[in-house]
Write a structure and sequence with these properties.
GO molecular function (chains A, B): 3-dehydroshikimate dehydratase activity; metal ion binding
CATH superfamily of the largest domain in chain A: Divalent-metal-dependent TIM barrel enzymes
InterPro entries (chains A, B): 4OHPhenylPyrv_dOase_C, 4OHPhenylPyrv_dOase_N, DSD, Glyas_Bleomycin-R_OHBP_Dase, Glyas_Fos-R_dOase_dom, IolE/XylAMocC-like, QuiC, VOC_core
Oligomer: homodimer
Largest sheet of chain A: 9 strands, mixed
Organism (chains A, B): Pseudomonas helleri
CATH topology of the largest domain in chain A: TIM Barrel
Shape of chain A: elongated
CATH class of the largest domain in chain A: Alpha Beta
Structural class of chain A: alpha/beta
Domain VOC (chains A, B): 296-415, 441-591
Distance between the termini of chain A: 66 Å
Binding site for Mg(2+) (chains A, B): 444, 522, 600
Helix content of chain A: 25-40%
Number of domains of chain A: 3
Number of strands of chain A: 25
CATH architecture of the largest domain in chain A: Alpha-Beta Barrel
């Protein structure tokens, strides 16, 4: 399909926007009137800029408050339309978006609406221009696509067609399925916008909270599928009013926009296949290689220098890890426990630049187990991911990899029933495992991200890796709010809670400021007997995050625990949560390593599926105290 | 009245909050349960901290989901209550907030509610504790104060009383007037919260958007007046859930909280006087000296160094100002035009520190005309404003002054029918006015503020100076959003639009980053004939902000102007707006002076009362272009 975006969706001046739209790979652009008004060049110059960039101008928008206007204003409104038609002809576009009248003094009499729209269609037709008529969700009398189609069908003028916008239908919980019955050539244009589900005034919701497809909660494939079935062959365009987008980096955001359309097309294709739609109708939709089934995290790789490497090794050994190998040719070591592989990389230029210099001790790569790494990489590249080829020494395996949004690597590692040959090929492995620890696997890995990058990360994982995203939760830190949204591979073998904070003194913001970018916030290891693991760790001297006794008093009020058990929880600083189905979580946190990221040990019982959100606030408060404890104690 | 605040209203750890609450001058504190849970000290220690700070613990809160709970949970819930009663006794408070049950599976049968609340009152009474029962706006069965009072009256137990929260009533558009009929001793506690009027889910609204009294749009005096009339003598407490407050500087925000209660008391007193309430009932309410009537801005004072002073003088002379005086003993000059006095102060330590060094060329003082400066100053001090006494030389008038939130000064200058003697006393005045300019008066002065300080400024001007605040408007800059809220003296002789932006590349944020704090953004001068003034200014070489021609094409589509008039508007870069009543605004902007603040010349016709909000977007776009024009032109 042709892919388009409205200029209002991006930050910057009109030339900056057009430049970014072309660079992202869009075919066309909707010129939003205000962007033109504020631009210090003529419409003809804009036309030339677009032509030079290879962008079509798919439409001009919006033309407001026309049909059913006060009768004494109709002539003036038609003059206004003619002036805008002049402008469209200078711009070189033949389509204008006319949105339904939202004025309080407008009238809804059907015959008047028919007359007004006929008149406008006549005027447009006389110049070979076309009107796309759209129902605003807050239109005074016309606010559904069904009403729009009723009027368009009745008027039956070649210059008047339906313009569809997913937001205006889905925000009112409208049913798009009947769109399939509209003749495709009567649909002149389609705008796609996603949004989080918010219980608020629909106009405010639309003006400030729209987002790219896949970033919100609307069923957009359910909206697009009947449009494809109608036979519509025009462009698919993004029209996103979003406060964050108004300030977001223009090129990066435009690239996200294009990726979101590709993702929407793939998901719509899947929907149409389920509904046994004719193969020919699927033709225009993007079809990347299918995503892999994932089997968990193969290894995590940390960038360290020698000193930090030794310290991190010491921490991990106290957590029950043991040194399992040394790289054959590089300053890289392997630590293992259960199904967990951690690689400590002290080579300065492993990733094309010195990751340690740039970020300090941090996660530089995540290797995930896939069924077919070539296909997984092809999918990532189809979604405009940046593939990575590392320096491979003799006898080393080359791993498929793609860059995450923060520049770290995601290795795509073929799953092997008998374990993974990559360690044998690259490492001199220790002959026997000596570790005593009972940690089994990586349960989840939480990231701290810059506040304005969450939507971009969500879209990255959803599209390139076909992950799912849980709903956002908002959690209180003593110094502000933290927002968390968890990404999960299907079957949940990989879980990545992403955390942001707009407040500068929260734990998340402190983590970020030390990374100068995004970074791992904590890594959670699962075990079968938390008390055994935590008592071993405590005995080995692992510094555990201290939880206030008042927390345990409250547990006593909330749950039927005997005092002895509560004392044990308190002694080991174990946090507890129980879900509505009786699933239970026991978990404990370490103090941060090098002031940056920390480890969590956890045990899930009876199918507990969450991350202990009920305990995040007490954990964040304990972390704040641990950061500033000495200062504060001295002050009191 | 006793004044209190809930710990949830502030940022930080529990000791930080208590410290700030005491420093602000509150009498008591509501301990929010989570703050206690996350605190690493016993309830007894918290009691001691409060005692040492001279703070009473006015209540413990909240106890949730009790009355009408599932019958199989009642015994467990009573146990839970007993545990919390233990905790209250350790804390040393006798009052607990019990909020109405919000659980979906709770029951609303009146007899069950009566039985459950009776049982709880019995248990509390046995320990000499008291229950304040509150209707949550989203309570499942009980969500109005009328229902609460009905149950409390029926049970008639000395340990059970009504707890009122303004948000829960006003968010549902409830009528508080009947509260006057509740016996005052049956009201156990009163919480006051303001909020902007938002069309959204009431729970989300409550959890994230409450603000201090006077910062929002609720009629809080209308809520408090009947409470005073009931004979209630307990504390007035703030319970503010606000995302911004969770990260705001703790001490400054607590001080704003106390100021907001004083302001609420003054406004409630005025309301009660209007309603002819008995004088004795007014006794407990704060009564500062009345605010002055204001007669406009007497002068503006800029901090400059010699070089900047000469440049600014040159700018102002081209705008029609003339040098009218030189200070008798200081490096300070006076420029005048019409009723406008501008003072350029190049003395390095005029304000106790070098304002120029700290801020660069900027507004350091605003002098406003009052009827009685001593009373105006007393009022500001009663509202905990910081008075300022400058260094006064021989024969100099000493002016009453108070510090604005950014450290600049607000002089309170007595209005004199025959002009102001301060210029004669301090300046060697020029004998004759030589200026040709037709600028008449300062129409408004717009400020750029850090994003999180707007509410604090609004409260400052409302309370100390009794200004009014217009509703907030949101305006698009090419690189983000700008929010603007105008403060006005009654009768509108002084107008101060305050602007903030959370996005770092907007015009407002650029202005701020150059000030390292807040600062003047533009100063608007009114005249009777804009075209005469602008043509004089243009001829004198004042650089005017260039407005794109596309703007004028759109004016042509919107209004019935002839081409000649449009050409004149465009030639002089004049912006135009018309309101619904036919009021008209003509205005023009200069380029910024020294990259910081700029001037506006305007003419109002037919009672136009706004600030040309319709034209702000094109102005901000033009400013962005002016900032970065050269770079961008080179790139294209």
């Amino acid at each position: 399909m042709k892919r388009s975006i409205a200029t209002v969706s991006l930050s910057g001046t009109l030339p900056e926007k057009l430049d970014a739209i072309a660079a992202a790979g869009f075919d066309g652009v909707e010129i939003f009137e205000n962007d033109l008004l504020y631009y210090d060049g003529s419409p003809r110059e804009v036309r030339q800029i677009c032509a030079d960039l290879g962008l079509g101008i798919s439409l001009f928008q919006p033309f407001r408050d026309f049909e059913g206007c006060r009768r004494d204003r109709l002539a003036r409104n038609l003059d206004r339309a003619e002036r805008k038609f002049d402008l469209m002809q200078e711009l070189g576009t033949d389509l204008v978006l006319v949105c339904s009248n939202a004025a309080a003094d407008s009238v809804g009499d059907r015959q008047i609406l028919l007359d007004d729209l006929s008149l406008l269609a006549e005027r447009a037709g006389a110049r070979n221009l076309r009107i796309g008529y759209e129902a605003l969700a807050w239109g005074r009398h016309v606010n559904t696509w069904q009403q729009v189609w009723d009027l368009v069908r009745e008027i039956d003028h070649p210059s008047l067609g339906v313009l569809l916008d997913s937001f205006h239908t889905l925000s009112l919980k409208g049913d798009p399925s009947g769109i399939a019955q509209i003749p495709g050539d009567k649909i002149f244009f389609v705008q796609m916008a996603d949004a989080p589900i918010l219980a608020m005034d629909v106009l405010e919701w639309s003006r400030h909270f729209r987002c790219f497809p896949g970033q919100g909660e609307f069923d957009l494939p359910g909206f697009l599928a009947p449009i494809i079935q109608s036979g519509y062959t025009g462009p698919l365009s993004l029209e996103i009013f979003n406060d964050g987008f108004r300030a977001a980096p223009t090129r990066a955001n435009a690239a996200d926009g294009l990726r979101s359309l590709l993702y929407l097309e793939e998901k719509t294709r899947e929907r149409l296949v389920q509904e046994a739609a004719p193969a020919a109708s699927l033709e225009p939709l993007f079809a990347p290689p299918k995503a892999s089934d994932y089997k968990g995290i193969e290894f995590l790789e940390f960038a360290v220098d020698d000193n930090q490497g030794a310290q991190l090794t010491h921490w991990l050994e106290r957590l029950g890890f043991s040194k399992a190998g040394q790289h054959r040719s590089k300053n890289v070591s392997l630590l293992r426990q259960g199904d967990i592989n951690l690689v400590l990389n002290a080579e300065p230029y492993s990733f094309g630049h010195n990751f340690f210099e740039a970020h300090g001790p941090s996660l530089c790569a995540t290797a995930i187990r896939v069924q077919d790494s070539a296909s997984a990489l092809a999918r990532a590249v189809a979604y405009k991911g940046q593939p990575y080829r590392g320096l491979v020494g003799p006898n080393e395996l080359e791993l498929a990899a793609v860059r995450a949004p923060d520049g770290s690597l995601i290795y795509l590692v073929d799953q092997d029933e008998a374990g993974n040959p990559l360690y044998e090929s690259d490492f001199n492995l220790a002959t026997a495992h000596t570790g005593q620890g009972g940690l089994k696997r990586i349960d989840h890995m939480a990231m701290a991200l810059p506040a304005d990058s969450l939507d971009s990360w969500v879209l990255f994982y959803k599209s390139l890796l076909d992950f799912e995203a849980d709903d956002e939760v908002v959690l209180p830190d003593p110094y502000g709010l933290v927002k968390s949204r968890a990404l999960r591979s299907r079957c949940s073998t990989i879980r990545l809670p992403l955390n942001i904070s707009e407040n500068k003194n929260t734990a998340i913001s402190h983590a970020l400021s030390s990374y100068r970018g995004s970074g791992v916030h904590h890594i959670a290891f699962e075990c079968d007997d938390l008390f055994a693991e935590v008592s071993r760790a405590k005995a080995a001297g692992v510094p555990l995050l201290d939880i206030p006794l008042n927390y345990y008093d409250d547990l006593a009020a909330r749950f039927d625990f005997d005092d002895e058990f509560l004392s044990e929880l308190a002694y080991f600083n174990v946090l507890y949560d129980r879900d509505a189905q009786g699933g239970e979580l026991f978990h404990v946190y370490t103090e941060p390593f090098a002031g940056r990221f920390f480890f969590e040990l956890l045990q899930r019982k009876n199918g507990y599926a969450g991350y202990g959100a009920a305990n995040v606030a007490v954990r964040l408060a304990a972390m704040a105290k641990s950061r500033t404890g000495a200062v504060r104690q001295a002050k009191l």
